[in-house]
Prior knowledge:
Distance between the termini of chain A: 30 Å
Distance between the termini of chain B: 39 Å
CATH architecture of the largest domain in chain A: Alpha-Beta Barrel
Strand order of the largest sheet of chain B: 5-6-7-15-14-18
Shape of chain B: globular
Helix content of chain B: 40-55%
Number of helices of chain A: 11
Oligomer: heterodimer
Radius of gyration of chain A: 21 Å
CATH superfamily of the largest domain in chain A: Aldolase class I
Strand content of chain A: 15-25%
Largest sheet of chain B: 6 strands, mixed
Strand content of chain B: 5-15%
Order of helices and strands of chain A: EEEHEEHEEHHEHEHEHHEHEHHE
Helix content of chain A: 25-40%
CATH topology of the largest domain in chain A: TIM Barrel
Radius of gyration of chain B: 26 Å
Number of helices of chain B: 31
Amino acid sequence: MGIVFAVNKYAIxxxxxxxTTVFLKGCPLACRWCHNPEGMDKVIALVWNADKCIGCGACxxxxxxxxxxxxxxxxxxxxxxxxxxxxxxxxxxxxxxxxVGREADVPDIMAEIQKDIPVYDESGGxxxxxxxxxxxxxxxxxxxLKACGSSGIHRAVDTCCFAPSRVVMDxxxxxxxxxxxxxxxxxELHRQYTGVPNDGIKKNIALLTQKGHEIRVRIPLxxxxxxxxxxxxxSADFLASLPGIQRVDLLPYHGIAKGKYRKLxxxxxxxxxxxxxxxxxxxCADILQQTGLTVQVGG
Amino acid sequence: MxxxxxxxxxxxxxxxxxxxxxxxxxxxxxxREHSGKYSLxxxxxxxFTYLCEKKTLYIGDDELIVGERGPAPKVVPTFPELTCxxxxxxxxxxxxxxxxxxxxxxxxxxxEETVIPYWTGRSMRDRIFSKVPDAWQKAYKAGLFTEFMExxxxxxxxxxxxxxxxxxxxxxxxxxxxxxxxxxLNDPAASETYEQLCAMDMACDAVIIFARRHADLALHxxxxxxxxxxxxxxxxxxxxxSWVPENAPRTFHEALQMYWFVxxxxxxxxxxxxAMSPGHLDLHLLPFYEKGLADGxxxxxxxxxxxxxxxxxxxxxxxxxxxxxxxxxxxxxxDFTQINLGGLKRDGSDGANEVSYLALEVADELQLLQPxxxxxxxxxxxxxxxxxxxxxxxxxxxxxxxxxxxxxxxxQIRAGKSIEDARExxxxxxxxxxxxxxxxxxxxxxxxxxxxxxxxxNNGTDPLxxxxxxxxxxxxxxxxxxxxxxxxxxxxxxxxVDLKIKVNNYIERMYARYCPAPFLSVVIDDCIDKGKDYxxxxxxxxxxxxxxxxxxxxxxxxxxxxxxVFDTRTVTWDQLLTALANDFADAEPLRLTLxxxxxxxxxxxxxxxxxxxxxxxxxxxxxxxxxxxxxxGYHLNMxxxxxxxxxxxxxxxxxxxxxxxxxxxxxxxxxHGADRNGPTAVIKSLxxxxxxxxxxxxxxxxxxxxxxxxxxxxxxxAALVRTYFRLGGHHIQFNVVDTxxxxxxxxxxxxxxxxxxxxxxxxxxxxxxxxxxQEEIISRTEQEMG
Lengths: 299, 786
């Protein structure tokens, strides 16, 4: 069993071909620009969408714990008495009550993944496990990877690589491609922006390349954090020093997650950044290309 | 595009559609004088000759391909022998806000004086409506089906390559040999056959006369002009028009003019649905293109210029105005000429060639309403061709539409055609499959499948009017299980289909008797060989289609009843029926439960898709193989054009949570907003329909422009199309436009006059659509990436 918060089909920016991306919940990092904040916490979150609510009161009446109450048209949940039985989710006709994340077992997820096998076949696609951080649920992830492997489905893991090397290498045995984030080269700044240092991450990336695993590096470009020439040059040098890294994807920051933070009542965790100028993106690409790397903007 | 094409395009784009009474007046004069003297086929051919001799000609500045159906571009004649517009109709056409046609008041007066009195009671529409039974009238008025033939002639015809190998003199020789061979001693039909063949012979002469008049006019204009370049062009036009259609074309220019005269002939003789289509134009033109390049008489640029001229000619030919229900089925200026590109040759090899790419370039540059280019993709088609087509699609004009050649062929083999004829076939109109140049595949009307469920839920009564329009199949409250309900639905369906077919067959005989089409019969095999008219079984293949609408809405509605009334038993019949009768007033939680908590079609969810398969099978059982009057029969196709909006208006609230009078699902697309798992799930669901048993399906997909921004994205879209086709899909088409742009266009329509969007099997200018259709397009699910 694991906790999954989304299964997206027709994912065309998460690896080769058309893919299904499975988002595993929970992440050891807290990047200030995170665009999937619903994936940060490992536990299932219960969310009320005010814009969908029709105020029918079905959830309030149906709650056995009496944890829900309307106050001035705003639904309040008593988080201490709520036992997350999810009755309110099932009772809501308007889908205003929403569970972010669900418990799922391997056959559940495989049934979804297998539906698009003809699409993977035709496009050279497959499945990508993302998050959150998929390595936070290593047993579940490996079980899924094995199941995909026996169905002949191409497997990619989208990870920040902040995990024990043993876990990384275990996963590596069961996937064809790693999509690895490289957020900042300076460990202290990395800690400031993401909450953790980067030494272990760099070590894991190096380890993977030494073992000959295929890696695509993805650098989120966040203005004011990591787009300075010094950092991009350091990233370029680091990547060029590793064997077998051919391609780097630059992922310019976009403000699309703003609504998600609001919905999750996580506004205090969101930092807003300006979009990166196309001139700056081109400059970053240029620096990386000069070391012989193939660069693509967007995934 | 060069300066000439830019001027011609501007002129065509800016001309406002208007009506001309000339054809109606000539026809009335001719009929007054000659009706009763000749057999009907000869009378029709005589009138066609009279029209070709008398009608006002038009050769515009800059034109290289010449000929107009009316006296000028976008001026449309009327066809009173089919539907005679009343003075009131004409005034409405002149003044209505959307799709208006300019009509002069003095023309209306003349129409009232001469045309209307003669055709009242004689037009096909009057004849049909005076004969149809009461039960049909009630069902028709309830919006259970429409009838195509009540004001336009049966059509949907496309040509094969015959006219590029045979001129009218060759056709005449063939006709003459059949006349000589008539056996009056042993063949009881010989005299009737003789009349048909004489009429065809006269029609050949008529178009030769028509072309020669153009040649004379061009020479006359050449004499007058002082512009030496134009003088040469006019002399060239005169030479071309003196050669074709009398003789088979020899050059690229002659080939295009040949097609155009044949096109004009067929759409002037009658106004068959969907005008006329050239079929695989790229394949037909290729030998002329290659020959021209080889002998130095043609360059890629001059070929493109000539092809652009044809494109503009087709755009000049606005659809004849419809009235009543038919206007609601398709409220557009588009007359649906479709040009097939790519596909396969007769021998099964890949058909995509240099002219196919040239035609895509022309479509891309001209951005005109008509014609509708479509690309035909077989397993042999190179990716380069598909990707080039997708590059045009990405720009958001809604075309070209994309068809699966291998499927189009299989559908035809199943219907009994030869493999070669099937390969030479393709699609015309929106998505309709047919054997080009050899088949009459007549669309008979749309079937409102969700409405059939509605009357089933009301024991045969239309809840909107209280009229009994179906049969009594029982009060649903007495049904013990879903199968009981389904059986009742299938019985209603069979009853309505039979009612429609009975009347169709009657109308079909009326067309064969009163409205033969001798010129169309000349160019469609085997009308000459059989000595029979196009409408009377003359073609090699004769198919009638019934177009089934609302598969998404009806599937989702049945799924909602199955889920909530029978499986979970959380909703009672009383609750549901009361809510439907009141359009969910005071029942919003119930409506949302139905809408949000039901397995819906389009999500690759077998629970819903199995119901879709069951409905499709019932439609197939009710329609496929029912006999028409030509010794063959009916097939179904899954096309709605814009009829799902009209049918939606005639439909109360439905169990899938849809409000009363809102549009139904279009074509074979999922209900708007019901597909919630992206485009791969949509194609997987669609692929569960056994599409080979249809004569075409239609899938609309709307993509946000951002999903197609890079060439990589485009390759992935190509893979999506290929997957759908590998799984047995017939057709897919794309709108690539965001909601914001469409909303902006509603606010400031003048700034968006060029904004083409895909409506049904054709594109239309967004600002020319009425508000209902605009909303319908905006409500289509936007596919993003995962």
